Inverse folding.
């Protein structure tokens, strides 16, 4: 007995003294104990995202009498029809282009395959409004392309020969298809790379001919991935404001813009925005439906890459040509046009002060929005980590809905509550301080940053959540058993282990903010221009001054995430 | 040996350092822990053993505070740390936890991992303590290395050093040796136990390995389906199991079915005393080494049907008239017979345990 006591004696008194005092003070209730701060943060974030959507519904319901019949009779049917045609056309284009190129580069060996693997992503760097802007000039009856064709065929003037006008629904579908197909290419290529090898081999041993593999195995296999890619591409299509405007396609986005900007009719804009949300809902549901069995499709064993089969010379050249087409049309041609035009302008006028100011404005806005978005995304992901459960899962889902909302819709949704808030601040300031603040939030660009945050919050939430999921839970428990509280675990373990996820999310958000056009057009303070709005303004006026330079800058910045994507999507070494 | 086994009498007198009282935990529809009670004396090392899914890891997580019980309470050094309306956060419990996967922080060096829990100490003091622990556990040479560059045994030692550095009153270890090779795990276990004894740190070691459970701790607690089936010293629980499950958990047994009659169960290998009521079905459990060769005519006649050579021992499969399953006899050194031979076998005194039939 003495033996036991003496052995145990030294640590016991000291530890008891150390143990009792904090424990007596820090008895807490079980409910809601872990990560309460994060849950509050996540709830606030979800609320911030939900407010614009709710405000939209409220504003639309409030709409002035007699307006809705007018919209229903004259504006919405045509715009909805145009939008539906555009979505269908772009959907078909991106499916064919994305899927076929992905299958070509993963399952076949042909000249240039390794280059095409990453080059096919390049059109992601050209926003839709820039590609439209570039082609409007390139394909102008008096422009370079048509001029060369006429010279080749021996025609003298555009009156004798001209290509069909690019300013049409067909032109818009083709151009959008050529810059948006990479979404489908990315997702279906990832599916082919990780899933196809075993199944393709199995199908061959079961008597499927080489040429049939695509139709019988690859395409059905890639269906969920294609659905994801197509829905992303179509959301971009819905979001587009520049291309459809320049090319004369009157979509819902355009009608929202004109209803608000030229008619100052917020309720009407909100009503059209709701119609647009219905389109988004259909898209999301279609995507869910196509993916419903996806989880059964992921194989448990480590994926093996497909061994590319070599194509003959003729077939190889045809494959290379097919892959080259979207790269040239979607990136090389517009980018070199912009580079050439920008160079001409630079030699002629140098860098104008305007464009420098606009670049600084763009970067500053994007930087503020990126930091806010990252912080809120971290809060949401951390809440889900600290207190996994239905509540945090719901908050997480809520906080990402902005990604499905087109920029104009988010902008109108943000405008409604912030305009009211601005009026209230102004009145209070006048009453109490005798100062007029005017539009404090909208005028300062705060509203714009808010809209960016709502729209792009899904990026850091998803990416940080994925980063967190790679950190074993035992690390959290180890840190806590070593005396760290929930916040400390976040700071000392989660944060340092997710820096790369944060960095890539930050990059994506930053570039998306810089490229963003529709929300920026609606929410920018008076007299403030970003690179994107400058380009839009010049294209709308038909003047071609500094626009090429602004467009080139945006495309260059837009290439950064493409490079990151290309590195991530590379085949894993065996 | 005497030093390793504080008798049970002393334990009941010393105030328990940890008392788990009627703790229950449900996960969805599954009762992971069902009114579990367990006490631990200061400096005591207890092995929590059981098949996977029996609830031993769940219990450890409740004690550590990374999970909260649905019912029951946990008291540490006289203060309730979990119970109705009470929950002390894991960081305030001063209970060390060593994980099966070691859970070393991949972004920190060995020294920073070990110093992780010393944040509340002054910098110099934390550095001194880290160096001290590293020297004591024998990882001083790895201070600047990162976890992924360490071997399994080295990682285990760093995890131990990290858990011990804040001088916890109690160390919980979840399968701490299961990721190591057989030979290495024996050595590391001996070293680890020596360090714990030396520091006087109480510990709960979770394991699924019966031999490790018998060898490692002062006491063994065997868990079955979310309950503690039996607690006691290794010898206690091995020699006097309270149920057939406990008996067979540590060593496979030969089972003979029978019926209690007049305080006895009659079997082809003889009659064994029992306290079961007359007419109740019984299972007689005979350990393999308790079967012995008897003088011809003194035991039951058995035909050898097979043999397995295991090095220092050999096991013979025997067929005895009236017993449906073949019996297995474990003999030291050379077997007294070959397959095809006939033997006379008997059960050694106290070699049989009688349990009610399931």
């Amino acid at each position: 007995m003495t033996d036991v006591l003496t052995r145990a004696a030294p640590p016991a008194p000291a530890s008891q003294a150390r143990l009792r005092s904090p424990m007596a003070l820090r008895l807490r209730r079980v409910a809601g104990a872990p990560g309460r701060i994060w849950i509050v943060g996540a709830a606030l974030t979800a609320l911030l995202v939900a407010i614009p959507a709710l405000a939209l519904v409220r504003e639309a319901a409030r709409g002035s009498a007699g307006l809705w019949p007018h919209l229903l009779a004259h504006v919405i049917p045509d715009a909805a029809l145009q939008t539906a045609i555009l979505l269908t056309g772009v959907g078909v284009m991106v499916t064919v282009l994305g899927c076929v190129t992905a299958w070509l580069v993963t399952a076949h060996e042909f000249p240039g395959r390794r280059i095409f693997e990453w080059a096919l992503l390049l059109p992601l760097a050209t926003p839709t409004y820039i590609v439209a802007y570039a082609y409007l000039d390139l394909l102008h009856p008096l422009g370079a392309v048509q001029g060369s064709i006429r010279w080749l065929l021996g025609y003298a003037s555009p009156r004798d020969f001209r290509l069909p006008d690019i300013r049409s629904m067909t032109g818009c579908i083709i151009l959008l298809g050529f810059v948006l197909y990479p979404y489908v290419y990315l997702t279906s290529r990832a599916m082919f790379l990780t899933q196809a090898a075993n199944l393709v081999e199995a199908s061959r041993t079961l008597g499927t001919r080489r040429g049939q593999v695509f139709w019988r195995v690859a395409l059905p296999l890639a269906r969920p991935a294609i659905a994801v890619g197509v829905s992303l591409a179509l959301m971009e299509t819905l979001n587009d404001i520049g291309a459809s405007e320049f090319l004369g396609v009157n979509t819902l986005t355009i009608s929202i813009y004109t209803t608000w900007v030229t008619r100052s009719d917020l309720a009407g804009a909100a009503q059209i925005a709701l119609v647009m949300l219905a389109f988004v809902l259909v898209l999301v549901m279609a995507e869910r439906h196509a993916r419903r069995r996806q989880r059964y499709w992921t194989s448990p064993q480590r994926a093996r890459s497909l061994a590319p089969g070599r194509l003959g010379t003729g077939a190889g050249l045809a494959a290379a040509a097919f892959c080259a087409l979207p790269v040239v049309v979607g990136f090389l041609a517009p980018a070199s046009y912009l580079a050439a035009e920008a160079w001409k302008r630079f030699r002629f006028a140098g860098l104008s002060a305007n464009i420098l100011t606009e670049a600084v404005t763009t970067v500053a806005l994007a930087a503020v929005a990126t930091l806010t978005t990252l912080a809120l995304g971290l809060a949401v992901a951390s809440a889900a980590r600290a207190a996994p459960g239905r509540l945090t899962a719901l908050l997480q889902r809520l906080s990402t809905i902005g990604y499905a909302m087109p920029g104009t819709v988010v902008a109108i949704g943000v405008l409604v509550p912030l305009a009211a808030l601005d009026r209230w601040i102004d009145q209070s300031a006048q009453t109490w301080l005798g100062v007029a603040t005017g539009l404090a939030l909208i005028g300062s660009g705060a509203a714009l940053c808010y809209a960016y945050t709502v729209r792009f919050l899904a990026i850091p939430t998803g990416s940080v959540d994925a980063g967190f999921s790679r950190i074993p839970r035992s690390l959290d428990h180890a840190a806590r058993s070593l005396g760290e509280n929930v916040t400390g675990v976040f700071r000392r373990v989660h944060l340092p282990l997710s820096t790369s996820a944060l960095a890539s999310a930050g990059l994506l958000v930053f570039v998306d903010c810089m490229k963003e056009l529709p929300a920026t057009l609606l929410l920018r303070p008076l007299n403030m221009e970003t690179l994107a709005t400058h380009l839009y303004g010049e294209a709308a006026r038909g003047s071609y001054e500094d626009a090429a330079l602004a467009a080139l800058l945006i495309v260059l910045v837009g290439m950064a995430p493409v490079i990151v994507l290309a590195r991530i999507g590379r085949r894993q070494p065996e | 040996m005497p030093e390793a086994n504080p008798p049970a009498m002393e334990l009941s007198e010393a105030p328990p350092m940890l008392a788990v009282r009627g703790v229950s935990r449900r996960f969805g529809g599954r009762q992971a822990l069902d009114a579990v009670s367990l006490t631990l004396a200061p400096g005591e090392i207890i092995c929590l053993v059981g098949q996977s899914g029996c609830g031993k890891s769940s219990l450890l997580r409740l004690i550590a505070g990374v999970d909260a019980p649905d019912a029951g309470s946990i008291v540490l050094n006289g203060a309730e740390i979990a119970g109705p309306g009470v929950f002390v956060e894991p960081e305030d419990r001063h209970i060390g936890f060593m994980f099966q996967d070691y859970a070393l922080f991949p972004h920190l060096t060995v020294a920073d991992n070990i110093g992780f829990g010393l944040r509340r100490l002054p910098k110099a003091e934390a550095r001194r303590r880290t160096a001290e622990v590293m020297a004591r556990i024998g990882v001083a040479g790895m201070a600047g290395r990162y976890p992924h560059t360490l071997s399994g045994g080295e990682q285990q030692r760093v995890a131990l050093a990290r858990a011990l550095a804040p001088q916890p009153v109690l160390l919980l270890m979840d399968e701490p040796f299961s990721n190591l090779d057989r030979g290495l795990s024996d050595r590391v276990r001996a070293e680890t136990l020596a360090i714990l004894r030396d520091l006087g740190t109480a510990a709960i070691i979770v394991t699924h390995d019966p031999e490790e459970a018998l060898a490692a701790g002062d006491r063994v607690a065997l868990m079955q389906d979310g309950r503690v089936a039996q607690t006691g010293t290794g010898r206690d629980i091995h020699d006097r199991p309270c149920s057939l499950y406990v008996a067979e958990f540590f060593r496979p047994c030969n089972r003979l079915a029978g019926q209690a009659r007049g305080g006895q169960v009659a079997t082809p290998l003889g009659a064994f005393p029992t306290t079961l009521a007359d007419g109740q079905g019984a299972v007689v459990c005979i350990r393999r080494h308790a079967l012995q060769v008897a003088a011809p005519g003194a035991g039951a006649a058995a035909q050898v049907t097979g043999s397995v050579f295991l090095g220092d021992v050999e096991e013979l499969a025997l067929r005895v008239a009236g017993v449906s399953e073949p019996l297995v006899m474990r003999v030291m050194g050379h077997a007294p017979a070959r397959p095809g031979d006939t033997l006379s076998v008997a059960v050694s005194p106290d070699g049989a345990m009688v349990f009610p039939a399931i």
Q: What stands out?
A: The longest helix of chain B spans residues 182-199. The CA atoms of residues 80 and 86 of chain B lie 7 Å apart. Residues 1-12 of chain B have pLDDT under 50 and may be disordered. Chain B touches chain A through 56 residues (CB under 8 Å).
